[in-house]
Design goal:
10 strands, Alpha-Beta Plaits, 5 helices, about 30% strand, 2 domains, alpha+beta, homodimer, about 250 residues
Protein backbone atom coordinates (compact mmCIF):
# COMPACT_ATOMS: atom_id res chain seq x y z
CA UNK A 1 0.00 0.00 0.00
CA UNK A 2 1.23 3.44 -0.91
CA UNK A 3 0.48 6.19 1.60
CA UNK A 4 0.64 9.97 1.11
CA UNK A 5 1.61 12.26 3.99
CA UNK A 6 1.06 16.00 4.29
CA UNK A 7 3.78 17.29 6.62
CA UNK A 8 4.33 20.60 8.36
CA UNK A 9 7.69 21.47 9.86
CA UNK A 10 9.53 24.31 11.48
CA UNK A 11 12.86 24.14 9.66
CA UNK A 12 14.82 25.96 12.36
CA UNK A 13 16.36 22.91 14.00
CA UNK A 14 16.53 20.68 10.93
CA UNK A 15 19.41 20.31 8.49
CA UNK A 16 16.81 20.29 5.73
CA UNK A 17 14.61 17.54 4.37
CA UNK A 18 17.05 15.06 2.89
CA UNK A 19 18.79 12.38 4.93
CA UNK A 20 22.46 13.05 5.51
CA UNK A 21 25.14 11.27 7.56
CA UNK A 22 25.42 14.03 10.15
CA UNK A 23 22.59 16.28 11.17
CA UNK A 24 18.95 16.00 12.02
CA UNK A 25 16.73 15.87 8.94
CA UNK A 26 12.95 15.75 8.42
CA UNK A 27 13.14 12.66 6.21
CA UNK A 28 15.16 10.71 8.79
CA UNK A 29 12.87 11.82 11.62
CA UNK A 30 9.84 10.53 9.68
CA UNK A 31 11.54 7.24 8.78
CA UNK A 32 12.52 6.69 12.41
CA UNK A 33 8.91 7.23 13.51
CA UNK A 34 7.62 4.87 10.80
CA UNK A 35 10.10 2.24 11.92
CA UNK A 36 8.81 2.49 15.49
CA UNK A 37 5.21 2.39 14.33
CA UNK A 38 5.38 -0.47 11.81
CA UNK A 39 8.65 -2.27 12.52
CA UNK A 40 9.43 -1.87 8.82
CA UNK A 41 12.40 -0.07 7.27
CA UNK A 42 10.44 2.45 5.27
CA UNK A 43 11.84 4.94 2.79
CA UNK A 44 9.94 8.23 2.70
CA UNK A 45 10.03 10.12 -0.61
CA UNK A 46 9.37 13.85 -0.49
CA UNK A 47 8.11 16.14 -3.26
CA UNK A 48 11.54 17.72 -3.19
CA UNK A 49 14.32 18.70 -0.86
CA UNK A 50 14.08 21.75 1.32
CA UNK A 51 17.31 23.28 2.54
CA UNK A 52 18.51 23.54 6.09
CA UNK A 53 16.31 26.06 7.89
CA UNK A 54 13.52 26.15 5.29
CA UNK A 55 9.99 25.66 6.66
CA UNK A 56 7.07 23.75 5.19
CA UNK A 57 3.42 24.61 5.66
CA UNK A 58 2.58 21.41 3.79
CA UNK A 59 5.32 19.27 2.32
CA UNK A 60 4.05 16.12 0.58
CA UNK A 61 5.71 12.71 0.76
CA UNK A 62 4.81 9.09 0.12
CA UNK A 63 5.95 5.68 1.28
CA UNK A 64 5.10 2.01 0.77
CA UNK A 65 4.17 -0.26 3.62
CA UNK A 66 2.80 -3.71 4.35
CA UNK A 67 1.22 -2.41 7.55
CA UNK A 68 -2.47 -3.02 8.19
CA UNK A 69 -2.87 0.41 9.79
CA UNK A 70 -5.64 2.20 7.84
CA UNK A 71 -3.93 4.84 5.68
CA UNK A 72 -5.78 7.80 7.17
CA UNK A 73 -4.72 6.71 10.68
CA UNK A 74 -1.00 7.14 10.04
CA UNK A 75 -1.18 10.90 10.72
CA UNK A 76 -2.40 10.52 14.26
CA UNK A 77 -0.24 7.48 15.02
CA UNK A 78 2.92 9.17 13.72
CA UNK A 79 2.28 12.47 15.50
CA UNK A 80 2.54 10.76 18.85
CA UNK A 81 6.01 9.55 17.88
CA UNK A 82 7.24 12.74 16.21
CA UNK A 83 8.84 15.78 17.87
CA UNK A 84 6.82 18.98 18.08
CA UNK A 85 8.65 20.68 15.18
CA UNK A 86 7.43 18.17 12.58
CA UNK A 87 3.86 16.87 12.47
CA UNK A 88 1.76 15.02 9.93
CA UNK A 89 -1.26 17.06 8.84
CA UNK A 90 -3.01 14.20 7.04
CA UNK A 91 -2.39 10.74 5.63
CA UNK A 92 -4.30 9.01 2.86
CA UNK A 93 -3.98 6.09 0.49
CA UNK A 94 -2.40 6.81 -2.89
CA UNK A 95 -2.69 5.02 -6.19
CA UNK A 96 0.32 2.77 -6.78
CA UNK A 97 1.64 5.04 -9.54
CA UNK A 98 1.56 8.17 -7.39
CA UNK A 99 4.98 9.65 -6.72
CA UNK A 100 5.32 12.70 -4.47
CA UNK A 101 8.13 14.09 -6.62
CA UNK A 102 7.47 12.91 -10.17
CA UNK A 103 3.68 13.37 -10.01
CA UNK A 104 3.93 16.92 -8.64
CA UNK A 105 2.45 19.45 -11.09
CA UNK A 106 2.94 22.74 -9.27
CA UNK A 107 4.47 24.09 -6.10
CA UNK A 108 3.99 27.30 -4.18
CA UNK A 109 6.72 28.88 -2.08
CA UNK A 110 6.54 31.99 0.08
CA UNK A 111 9.49 34.14 1.06
CA UNK A 112 8.88 36.54 3.95
CA UNK A 113 10.76 39.71 4.86
CA UNK A 114 10.07 41.95 7.83
CA UNK A 115 10.97 45.59 8.16
CA UNK A 116 12.44 46.59 11.49
CA UNK A 117 15.29 48.54 12.98
CA UNK A 118 16.05 45.60 15.28
CA UNK A 119 15.73 41.84 15.14
CA UNK A 120 12.28 40.88 16.41
CA UNK A 121 12.36 37.66 18.46
CA UNK A 122 8.70 36.89 17.69
CA UNK A 123 9.19 37.19 13.91
CA UNK A 124 12.80 36.39 13.24
CA UNK A 125 12.45 32.60 13.13
CA UNK A 126 10.22 32.80 10.05
CA UNK A 127 11.26 35.93 8.21
CA UNK A 128 14.33 37.83 7.09
CA UNK A 129 14.77 41.32 8.47
CA UNK A 130 15.30 44.23 6.14
CA UNK A 131 16.24 47.72 7.28
CA UNK A 132 14.95 50.86 5.65
CA UNK A 133 12.22 51.49 3.14
CA UNK A 134 11.49 49.33 0.14
CA UNK A 135 9.13 50.10 -2.71
CA UNK A 136 6.70 47.20 -2.88
CA UNK A 137 5.12 48.45 -6.13
CA UNK A 138 8.51 48.29 -7.81
CA UNK A 139 9.09 44.83 -6.40
CA UNK A 140 5.75 43.74 -7.88
CA UNK A 141 6.69 45.33 -11.21
CA UNK A 142 9.94 43.37 -11.19
CA UNK A 143 8.14 40.18 -10.17
CA UNK A 144 6.02 40.38 -13.34
CA UNK A 145 9.13 39.57 -15.43
CA UNK A 146 9.57 36.33 -13.50
CA UNK A 147 6.12 35.09 -14.51
CA UNK A 148 5.91 32.90 -17.59
CA UNK A 149 8.11 30.20 -19.12
CA UNK A 150 11.77 31.17 -19.00
CA UNK A 151 15.23 29.73 -18.75
CA UNK A 152 15.94 30.53 -15.10
CA UNK A 153 19.66 29.79 -15.23
CA UNK A 154 20.28 33.19 -13.62
CA UNK A 155 18.80 31.82 -10.38
CA UNK A 156 20.62 28.49 -10.49
CA UNK A 157 22.87 27.67 -7.55
CA UNK A 158 26.50 27.51 -8.67
CA UNK A 159 26.90 23.97 -7.32
CA UNK A 160 23.89 22.60 -9.21
CA UNK A 161 24.41 20.16 -12.07
CA UNK A 162 20.88 20.37 -13.46
CA UNK A 163 20.77 20.59 -17.28
CA UNK A 164 17.26 21.78 -18.09
CA UNK A 165 16.81 25.15 -16.46
CA UNK A 166 13.53 26.10 -18.16
CA UNK A 167 10.58 26.40 -15.78
CA UNK A 168 7.15 28.00 -15.84
CA UNK A 169 6.21 30.44 -13.09
CA UNK A 170 2.42 30.87 -12.95
CA UNK A 171 2.59 33.88 -10.70
CA UNK A 172 4.98 35.86 -8.54
CA UNK A 173 3.13 38.18 -6.16
CA UNK A 174 4.60 40.68 -3.74
CA UNK A 175 2.43 41.83 -0.85
CA UNK A 176 2.92 44.07 2.15
CA UNK A 177 0.95 43.78 5.35
CA UNK A 178 2.03 45.82 8.37
CA UNK A 179 5.75 45.25 8.62
CA UNK A 180 5.75 41.99 6.59
CA UNK A 181 6.57 41.75 2.89
CA UNK A 182 5.87 38.40 1.25
CA UNK A 183 6.83 37.06 -2.14
CA UNK A 184 4.62 34.16 -3.22
CA UNK A 185 5.71 32.16 -6.25
CA UNK A 186 3.87 29.31 -7.91
CA UNK A 187 5.59 27.28 -10.59
CA UNK A 188 5.55 23.92 -12.35
CA UNK A 189 8.87 23.23 -10.69
CA UNK A 190 11.77 25.08 -9.17
CA UNK A 191 15.49 24.81 -9.65
CA UNK A 192 17.41 23.94 -6.52
CA UNK A 193 17.53 27.09 -4.40
CA UNK A 194 15.65 29.19 -6.95
CA UNK A 195 13.31 31.16 -4.71
CA UNK A 196 15.97 32.61 -2.41
CA UNK A 197 17.84 34.46 -5.22
CA UNK A 198 14.45 35.56 -6.61
CA UNK A 199 13.76 37.09 -3.18
CA UNK A 200 17.20 38.70 -3.19
CA UNK A 201 16.72 40.11 -6.68
CA UNK A 202 13.30 41.57 -5.88
CA UNK A 203 14.68 43.02 -2.64
CA UNK A 204 17.32 44.88 -4.67
CA UNK A 205 14.50 46.17 -6.87
CA UNK A 206 12.58 47.33 -3.79
CA UNK A 207 15.67 49.07 -2.45
CA UNK A 208 16.21 50.84 -5.77
CA UNK A 209 19.50 49.08 -6.52
CA UNK A 210 17.90 47.44 -9.59
CA UNK A 211 15.24 48.95 -11.83
CA UNK A 212 12.21 46.63 -12.17
CA UNK A 213 13.04 46.14 -15.88
CA UNK A 214 16.45 44.83 -14.95
CA UNK A 215 14.80 41.58 -13.82
CA UNK A 216 14.04 40.90 -17.49
CA UNK A 217 17.69 41.51 -18.43
CA UNK A 218 18.90 39.30 -15.60
CA UNK A 219 16.73 36.41 -16.77
CA UNK A 220 17.79 36.87 -20.40
CA UNK A 221 21.47 37.16 -19.42
CA UNK A 222 21.39 33.71 -17.77
CA UNK A 223 24.23 34.57 -15.39
CA UNK A 224 23.90 34.00 -11.67
CA UNK A 225 26.30 36.88 -11.10
CA UNK A 226 23.75 39.40 -12.39
CA UNK A 227 20.95 38.41 -9.98
CA UNK A 228 20.52 39.46 -6.37
CA UNK A 229 21.97 37.50 -3.52
CA UNK A 230 20.54 34.29 -2.12
CA UNK A 231 18.42 35.26 0.89
CA UNK A 232 18.69 33.25 4.15
CA UNK A 233 16.74 30.00 4.41
CA UNK A 234 14.69 30.97 7.46
CA UNK A 235 12.48 33.33 5.39
CA UNK A 236 11.47 30.56 2.98
CA UNK A 237 8.47 28.28 3.32
CA UNK A 238 7.17 25.55 1.01
CA UNK A 239 3.46 26.34 1.09
CA UNK A 240 1.77 23.79 -1.12
CA UNK A 241 2.36 20.99 -3.64
CA UNK A 242 -0.23 20.22 -6.31
CA UNK A 243 -1.04 16.91 -8.02
CA UNK A 244 -3.51 16.10 -10.78
CA UNK A 245 -6.51 14.15 -9.55
CA UNK A 246 -5.37 14.09 -5.92
CA UNK A 247 -7.36 16.21 -3.49
CA UNK A 248 -5.91 16.79 -0.06
CA UNK A 249 -8.02 17.59 2.98
CA UNK A 250 -8.11 21.27 3.92
CA UNK A 251 -5.87 21.86 6.87
CA UNK A 252 -5.27 24.77 9.22
CA UNK B 1 20.29 58.61 34.66
CA UNK B 2 17.14 56.51 34.37
CA UNK B 3 16.69 54.61 31.11
CA UNK B 4 13.53 52.99 29.73
CA UNK B 5 13.75 49.86 27.59
CA UNK B 6 11.11 48.40 25.28
CA UNK B 7 11.79 44.67 25.11
CA UNK B 8 10.48 41.91 22.89
CA UNK B 9 10.96 38.27 23.82
CA UNK B 10 9.98 34.82 22.73
CA UNK B 11 9.06 33.25 26.08
CA UNK B 12 9.55 29.66 24.94
CA UNK B 13 12.99 29.12 26.43
CA UNK B 14 12.66 31.49 29.39
CA UNK B 15 11.46 30.66 32.89
CA UNK B 16 9.55 33.93 32.78
CA UNK B 17 10.60 37.50 33.45
CA UNK B 18 11.61 37.50 37.10
CA UNK B 19 15.04 36.45 38.32
CA UNK B 20 15.08 33.12 40.07
CA UNK B 21 17.87 30.95 41.47
CA UNK B 22 17.53 28.23 38.84
CA UNK B 23 16.37 28.85 35.33
CA UNK B 24 16.99 31.32 32.56
CA UNK B 25 14.96 34.51 32.94
CA UNK B 26 14.54 37.63 30.83
CA UNK B 27 15.42 39.97 33.71
CA UNK B 28 18.67 38.13 34.45
CA UNK B 29 19.60 37.99 30.77
CA UNK B 30 19.16 41.78 30.52
CA UNK B 31 21.10 42.44 33.71
CA UNK B 32 23.96 40.24 32.49
CA UNK B 33 24.10 42.17 29.21
CA UNK B 34 24.05 45.52 31.07
CA UNK B 35 26.89 44.33 33.31
CA UNK B 36 28.97 43.48 30.23
CA UNK B 37 28.12 46.78 28.60
CA UNK B 38 28.63 49.16 31.52
CA UNK B 39 30.58 47.21 34.11
CA UNK B 40 27.90 48.19 36.62
CA UNK B 41 25.67 45.87 38.62
CA UNK B 42 22.36 47.14 37.33
CA UNK B 43 18.92 46.12 38.51
CA UNK B 44 16.30 46.08 35.75
CA UNK B 45 12.70 46.70 36.86
CA UNK B 46 9.96 45.41 34.58
CA UNK B 47 6.36 46.62 34.29
CA UNK B 48 5.36 43.29 35.75
CA UNK B 49 6.27 39.65 35.77
CA UNK B 50 5.41 37.40 32.90
CA UNK B 51 5.20 33.68 33.57
CA UNK B 52 7.41 30.97 32.17
CA UNK B 53 6.61 30.62 28.47
CA UNK B 54 4.70 33.90 28.11
CA UNK B 55 5.81 36.13 25.21
CA UNK B 56 6.14 39.90 25.06
CA UNK B 57 5.65 42.02 21.97
CA UNK B 58 6.77 45.01 24.03
CA UNK B 59 7.55 44.65 27.72
CA UNK B 60 8.71 47.86 29.38
CA UNK B 61 11.47 48.11 31.97
CA UNK B 62 13.73 50.75 33.47
CA UNK B 63 17.11 50.92 35.15
CA UNK B 64 19.49 53.49 36.63
CA UNK B 65 23.03 53.87 35.42
CA UNK B 66 26.05 56.14 35.73
CA UNK B 67 27.10 55.22 32.21
CA UNK B 68 27.82 57.95 29.68
CA UNK B 69 26.29 55.92 26.86
CA UNK B 70 23.53 58.09 25.31
CA UNK B 71 20.20 56.61 26.46
CA UNK B 72 18.86 55.94 22.97
CA UNK B 73 22.05 53.99 22.13
CA UNK B 74 21.47 51.30 24.76
CA UNK B 75 19.07 49.38 22.47
CA UNK B 76 21.64 48.78 19.77
CA UNK B 77 24.51 48.20 22.19
CA UNK B 78 22.52 45.67 24.24
CA UNK B 79 21.18 43.79 21.21
CA UNK B 80 24.69 42.79 20.23
CA UNK B 81 25.11 41.22 23.67
CA UNK B 82 21.66 39.61 23.94
CA UNK B 83 20.55 36.22 22.60
CA UNK B 84 18.19 36.17 19.61
CA UNK B 85 15.10 35.40 21.71
CA UNK B 86 15.22 38.70 23.61
CA UNK B 87 15.95 42.02 21.94
CA UNK B 88 15.59 45.65 22.92
CA UNK B 89 13.20 47.51 20.60
CA UNK B 90 14.08 50.98 21.85
CA UNK B 91 15.79 52.78 24.72
CA UNK B 92 15.18 56.33 25.89
CA UNK B 93 15.83 58.54 28.88
CA UNK B 94 13.15 58.63 31.56
CA UNK B 95 12.32 61.23 34.16
CA UNK B 96 13.74 60.27 37.53
CA UNK B 97 10.29 59.56 38.95
CA UNK B 98 9.34 57.17 36.13
CA UNK B 99 8.82 53.60 37.31
CA UNK B 100 8.01 50.88 34.79
CA UNK B 101 5.69 49.13 37.24
CA UNK B 102 4.21 51.86 39.43
CA UNK B 103 3.80 54.42 36.64
CA UNK B 104 2.03 51.96 34.31
CA UNK B 105 -1.54 53.06 33.58
CA UNK B 106 -2.79 50.31 31.28
CA UNK B 107 -1.65 47.04 29.79
CA UNK B 108 -2.82 45.01 26.83
CA UNK B 109 -2.52 41.26 26.66
CA UNK B 110 -3.43 38.92 23.80
CA UNK B 111 -4.27 35.26 24.14
CA UNK B 112 -4.19 33.24 20.91
CA UNK B 113 -5.89 29.94 20.12
CA UNK B 114 -5.64 28.03 16.87
CA UNK B 115 -8.12 25.51 15.54
CA UNK B 116 -6.61 22.37 14.10
CA UNK B 117 -6.98 18.63 14.17
CA UNK B 118 -3.23 18.31 14.74
CA UNK B 119 -0.50 20.35 16.38
CA UNK B 120 0.90 22.79 13.81
CA UNK B 121 4.67 23.22 14.21
CA UNK B 122 4.59 26.70 12.62
CA UNK B 123 1.89 27.98 14.99
CA UNK B 124 2.21 25.96 18.14
CA UNK B 125 4.98 28.03 19.76
CA UNK B 126 2.69 31.07 19.99
CA UNK B 127 -0.82 29.72 20.29
CA UNK B 128 -2.86 27.07 22.08
CA UNK B 129 -4.54 24.48 19.89
CA UNK B 130 -8.24 23.83 20.21
CA UNK B 131 -10.08 21.02 18.51
CA UNK B 132 -13.56 21.32 17.13
CA UNK B 133 -15.81 24.27 16.51
CA UNK B 134 -16.20 27.22 18.81
CA UNK B 135 -18.76 29.98 18.57
CA UNK B 136 -16.80 33.22 18.44
CA UNK B 137 -19.95 35.38 18.69
CA UNK B 138 -20.80 33.69 21.99
CA UNK B 139 -17.23 34.18 23.19
CA UNK B 140 -17.54 37.88 22.37
CA UNK B 141 -20.88 38.03 24.19
CA UNK B 142 -19.25 36.47 27.26
CA UNK B 143 -16.28 38.82 26.98
CA UNK B 144 -18.61 41.83 27.34
CA UNK B 145 -19.23 40.85 31.00
CA UNK B 146 -15.50 41.10 31.70
CA UNK B 147 -15.38 44.73 30.60
CA UNK B 148 -15.77 47.37 33.30
CA UNK B 149 -14.65 47.66 36.92
CA UNK B 150 -15.11 44.42 38.81
CA UNK B 151 -13.73 42.36 41.62
CA UNK B 152 -11.89 39.73 39.58
CA UNK B 153 -11.25 37.34 42.46
CA UNK B 154 -12.72 34.56 40.30
CA UNK B 155 -9.63 34.75 38.08
CA UNK B 156 -7.11 34.97 40.93
CA UNK B 157 -4.47 32.27 41.07
CA UNK B 158 -4.93 30.14 44.19
CA UNK B 159 -1.37 30.82 45.35
CA UNK B 160 -1.71 34.61 45.12
CA UNK B 161 -1.75 36.68 48.31
CA UNK B 162 -2.97 39.91 46.69
CA UNK B 163 -5.64 41.71 48.74
CA UNK B 164 -7.21 44.18 46.33
CA UNK B 165 -8.70 42.19 43.48
CA UNK B 166 -10.68 45.02 41.87
CA UNK B 167 -9.48 45.98 38.39
CA UNK B 168 -10.87 47.85 35.42
CA UNK B 169 -10.95 46.13 32.02
CA UNK B 170 -11.35 48.71 29.25
CA UNK B 171 -12.13 46.14 26.61
CA UNK B 172 -12.08 42.40 25.99
CA UNK B 173 -12.34 41.59 22.27
CA UNK B 174 -12.55 38.20 20.64
CA UNK B 175 -11.61 37.93 16.98
CA UNK B 176 -11.28 35.11 14.49
CA UNK B 177 -9.05 35.20 11.45
CA UNK B 178 -8.54 32.03 9.45
CA UNK B 179 -7.77 29.38 12.04
CA UNK B 180 -6.68 31.84 14.75
CA UNK B 181 -8.91 33.09 17.55
CA UNK B 182 -7.50 35.93 19.64
CA UNK B 183 -8.70 37.44 22.89
CA UNK B 184 -7.32 40.93 23.44
CA UNK B 185 -7.76 42.47 26.88
CA UNK B 186 -6.79 45.95 27.99
CA UNK B 187 -6.97 46.87 31.66
CA UNK B 188 -5.60 49.26 34.25
CA UNK B 189 -3.86 46.30 35.79
CA UNK B 190 -4.10 42.54 35.94
CA UNK B 191 -4.04 40.12 38.81
CA UNK B 192 -1.24 37.59 38.65
CA UNK B 193 -2.19 35.05 35.99
CA UNK B 194 -5.52 36.70 35.26
CA UNK B 195 -5.66 36.50 31.46
CA UNK B 196 -5.10 32.76 31.20
CA UNK B 197 -8.26 31.82 33.18
CA UNK B 198 -10.16 34.52 31.25
CA UNK B 199 -9.09 32.70 28.05
CA UNK B 200 -10.15 29.38 29.57
CA UNK B 201 -13.53 30.76 30.64
CA UNK B 202 -14.24 32.26 27.22
CA UNK B 203 -13.14 29.03 25.53
CA UNK B 204 -15.76 27.16 27.59
CA UNK B 205 -18.30 29.73 26.40
CA UNK B 206 -17.24 29.17 22.79
CA UNK B 207 -17.52 25.43 23.22
CA UNK B 208 -21.03 25.76 24.66
CA UNK B 209 -20.05 24.46 28.11
CA UNK B 210 -20.88 27.88 29.64
CA UNK B 211 -23.62 30.24 28.48
CA UNK B 212 -22.25 33.76 27.78
CA UNK B 213 -24.28 35.11 30.74
CA UNK B 214 -22.52 32.70 33.05
CA UNK B 215 -19.43 34.90 32.84
CA UNK B 216 -21.36 37.54 34.80
CA UNK B 217 -22.28 34.97 37.48
CA UNK B 218 -18.69 33.72 37.66
CA UNK B 219 -17.38 37.24 38.29
CA UNK B 220 -20.07 37.95 40.89
CA UNK B 221 -19.47 34.59 42.59
CA UNK B 222 -15.80 35.45 43.21
CA UNK B 223 -14.75 31.79 43.29
CA UNK B 224 -11.89 30.54 41.16
CA UNK B 225 -13.58 27.14 41.04
CA UNK B 226 -16.43 28.50 38.92
CA UNK B 227 -14.24 29.92 36.15
CA UNK B 228 -12.66 28.04 33.25
CA UNK B 229 -9.25 26.52 33.46
CA UNK B 230 -5.97 28.40 33.23
CA UNK B 231 -4.83 28.12 29.61
CA UNK B 232 -1.17 27.29 28.83
CA UNK B 233 1.36 30.14 28.93
CA UNK B 234 2.56 29.78 25.33
CA UNK B 235 -0.66 31.34 23.96
CA UNK B 236 -0.23 34.51 26.03
CA UNK B 237 1.57 37.66 24.95
CA UNK B 238 2.04 40.98 26.72
CA UNK B 239 1.34 43.35 23.86
CA UNK B 240 1.73 46.85 25.25
CA UNK B 241 2.20 48.88 28.43
CA UNK B 242 0.90 52.45 28.64
CA UNK B 243 2.24 55.39 30.67
CA UNK B 244 0.92 58.92 31.04
CA UNK B 245 3.04 61.50 29.27
CA UNK B 246 5.54 58.95 27.92
CA UNK B 247 5.44 58.32 24.19
CA UNK B 248 7.32 55.33 22.85
CA UNK B 249 8.62 55.07 19.30
CA UNK B 250 6.39 52.98 17.02
CA UNK B 251 7.74 49.48 16.80
CA UNK B 252 6.49 46.17 15.49
Amino acid sequence: MRVILGIQYNGKDFCGWQIQPNGRTVQQTLEDALKKLTGENISVQGSGRTDSGVHALCQVAHFDTKSTIPPQKFACALNGLLPSDVQVLFSMQAKDDFHSRFSAKKKTYVYTFYQSEVNLPLTDDYAQRIVGKVDVDKMQAGAKYIEGTHDFKCFLASNSSVKDTVRTVYYCKVKKKNNLITIEVRGNGFLYNMVRPIAGTLLYVGEGRFAPEKVKDIIEGKSRLDAGKTMPAKGLMLKKVYYKGVKFPKIY
